[in-house]
Specification:
The protein has about 80 residues and is an all-alpha fold. Helices cover about 75% and strands about 0% of the residues. The radius of gyration is 23 Å and the shape is elongated. The N and C termini lie far apart (about 45 Å). About 0% of the residues are buried.
């Protein structure tokens, strides 16, 4: 998908819209997007630290496969 082309198409369409309810809906979407776009401002410092630790683990290769995790769970809970 060419995002620039899609934006231009939306702008072109928007200039022809005369329905106030559509404009109001778009304004609501824009407002909600602006408020939630910065997701990292809504998480705690502890959550940020845990994310950083997880990214570091990935970089260092400290990973488990899905199969390894399932084996561990089955062993722990006698499944």
């Amino acid at each position: 998908m060419d995002i620039q082309l899609e934006k231009y198409k939306l702008i072109e369409w928007l200039t022809s819209v005369n329905d106030e309810s559509i404009i109001a809906t778009l304004k609501t979407i824009k407002s909600n997007f602006s408020e939630t776009n910065d997701w990292d401002s809504s998480i705690s410092e502890n959550e940020k630290l845990l994310i950083e630790k997880g990214l570091k683990d990935i970089e260092e290769g400290n990973l488990l496969t899905h199969e390894q995790v399932m084996i561990g769970i089955k062993e722990k809970y006698n499944l």
